[in-house]
Design a protein that fits this description.
Elements lengths: L73 E7 L6 H18 L4 E5 L1 E4 L16 H13 L3 E4 L2 E4 L15 H22 L3 E6 L10 H9 L5 E6 L18 E4 L11 H12 L4 H4 L3 E5 L22 H17 L4 E8 L18 H13 L3
Parallel strand pairs: 1-2, 1-10, 2-4, 3-5, 4-6, 6-7, 7-8, 8-9, 9-10
Helix pairs in contact: 1-2, 2-3, 3-4, 5-7, 7-8
């Protein structure tokens, strides 16, 4: 699969990791030693993996509500569009996947994710291509989600097409001023859609590791706020957030992605996995944690995956309890620290949850989906 098809960073992008064709593109990871704690999967594991009956009625929510005003963390699922499609297809795909996210997984939020592109790490330009989901198609998905009562956030990615590793975290433009201007203009039509439809949050940038110390972010965020009046946020690479939250960019509501390694055996009990997760966040100030969302986390249902959670490519050694325990640990962590929410990576826009892929990163049709339902009960979303 070529980089231009959306293989990114440390975990699988580009429509799944759906096959062994996808090359691994790991972001750099450093290691830390962790400890113990408590969690359990309810008897939900007896539930069917795909709903057999009619879809449950959608609850009404106010998508413009500020996340931190909620009495509980949000449970979200990322909906990723690898490419652009005709509006009729986007509507059909969106109806299928968003109903699954709402009515089966019992999530109360969706993160709509799509790709922008840059040619090289040093390029000063961020652009849309024929592969980029259009603002009109993002609007279609937003309206479907809102009709189902889902809170909506937008979170675009940047794929670097002409470099060995297409991860956006390596981008370091020659002229940051030009880059920020280009990036704003790439996002502006989507910011306008977000404002028109009243979505709750726009995650304006994601894992821009090498640009974290670049002057210009404050002016960029201020410019974004001239178009969009909801929550303006940024998702840090986890190494730029944890453990001290020392590199948070100037936004009121920060976010982070979470793929830090856990040095645990695959058969570690759920309580131990949860405690290891919680240990990563224990030194972050409470005032920061309460404003923070985990905008993306995931893991393959694979033996040994705790040490390399971002490796979504390996497809041998199935162990569904690894994925179950990771999801539950994420939910217990955001609940313990009163964080804004957690978004699970991912459902692809073109997925058919009734006939899911068999890759180990896929949770549809597996125990991982039941763990997300258990998270919904834990966080009060169901």
């Amino acid at each position: 699969m070529s980089a231009s098809r959306g293989v990114l960073g440390h975990r699988g992008f580009g429509g799944a990791p759906r096959s062994a064709e996808c090359p691994p593109w790991p972001a750099l990871r450093r290691f830390a030693l962790l400890t113990l704690g408590a969690v359990a999967l309810p008897a939900a594991c007896a539930w069917p993996l795909i709903p057999a009956g009619p879809a449950a009625a959608a609850r009404t929510t106010t998508t413009s509500a500020i996340a931190t005003a909620r009495s509980r963390p949000v449970l979200g699922v990322d909906l990723y569009s690898l490419s652009n499609y005709p509006a009729t297809q986007v509507t059909a795909y969106g109806e299928r996947t968003l109903k699954y996210i709402k009515n089966f997984l019992h999530a109360d939020a969706v993160g709509i994710v799509w790709n922008f592109y840059a040619t090289t790490y040093s390029s000063d330009y961020v652009q849309t291509t024929s592969e980029t989901l259009t603002p009109g198609n993002v609007a279609i998905l937003t309206k479907i989600a809102q009709g189902l009562g889902l809170r909506v956030e937008y979170r675009p990615m940047i794929v670097v097409t002409d470099e060995p590793n297409p991860w956006q975290g390596i981008i370091s433009p020659a002229d940051p001023h030009v880059w920020f201007n280009s990036y704003f203009h790439a996002e502006k039509p989507y910011l306008q859609v977000a404002q028109q439809l009243g979505i709750s949050e726009f995650v304006t940038a994601n894992e821009m590791h090498r640009m974290n110390a670049t002057p210009g972010w404050g002016a960029f965020f201020a410019r974004v706020r001239t178009v969009f009046g909801g929550i303006v946020s940024y998702a840090s690479w986890d190494e730029d957030y944890l453990p001290s939250a020392a590199h948070i960019l100037p936004v009121r509501y920060p976010g982070t992605n979470m793929y830090r390694p856990l040095f645990l055996p695959s058969n570690a009990p759920s309580a131990q996995v949860t405690a290891a997760w919680e240990a990563y966040f224990q030194h972050v100030p409470a005032s920061v944690l309460e404003r923070t969302a985990i905008d993306e986390t995931g893991i393959a249902a694979r033996r040994g995956a705790y040490r390399h959670p971002g490796d979504m490519w390996s497809n041998i050694g199935r162990d569904e309890e690894v994925q179950v325990n990771w999801y539950l640990a994420a939910c217990h962590t955001v609940l313990r620290y009163h964080m804004r929410g957690v978004y699970i990576w991912k459902v692809d826009l073109t997925d058919n949850p009734a006939h899911p892929a068999r890759s180990l990163s896929t949770f549809e049709g597996e125990k991982g989906a039941l763990a997300i339902r258990a998270c919904a009960r834990l966080l009060g979303a169901a």
